[in-house]
Amino acid sequence: MNIKMMRSLAIFAAVVMLAAGCAERDMGDLQQWTENLYKNRKPKIESLPQIRPSETFVYAATTLADPFSASNLIKQKPPAASGQAPDQTRRKEPLEQYPLDGLRMVGTLFRNESSWVILRAPDGTVHRVREGNHVGQSYGVITDISEEQISIKELVQDPNGAWVERLASLSVQ
Fold first, then answer.
1. Beta 126-129 vs 134-135: how paired, if at all?
2. pLDDT interval class at 142 (50, 70, 90)
3. How many CA atoms lie within 13 A of 30 on its CB side?
4. Cα distance between residue 35 and residue 30, in whole Å
5. For residue range 22-54, what is the model confidence (pLDDT) as tens digits?
6. Is 52 contained in some domain?
7. What stretches of the chain show up as alpha helix (H) in DSSP?
8. Under DSSP, is residue 117 helix (H, G, I), strand (E, B) or coil?
9. CB 173 within 8 A of CB 104
10. Is residue 133 part of a domain?
11. Is residue 4 part of a domain?
């Protein structure tokens, strides 16, 4: 016999055995045995826990002051006028239209006792400024110049509306 014929015969035998295994058999005795096995058994069911009634609560604070009434709210005083408010009538300088983080310190110039800082604006223009010039959108004033950085004092409003000083700096990039 050749190999092809042996394979065909093996496949045919496997199919016949599978078909014989799938044939319906009488399983009545097995079914009757399982029914008799569990016929007198009852499942164990735990009883439900007892539910205790909750205690009632009587709200007796109706005679007390209402904590949410307008008379109980503390009125905040308006912020005291501080002498730090920026001069709104002053003419704005060119570098005040840019945010401080958009400005880049390019270098410094020193001549005799004078010192200047070279700043590049976000639009690419280069500006020469000195102590006392205003920069940034938060009323910043240059207070100190060194070779590596400039110190800036800004005026910003706190949540109560009072003007407070905030220190910032720009360094050579």
1. unpaired
2. very high
3. 3
4. 9
5. 666 677 888 888 888 878 777 788 888 998 888
6. no
7. 3-21, 28-37
8. strand
9. yes
10. yes
11. no
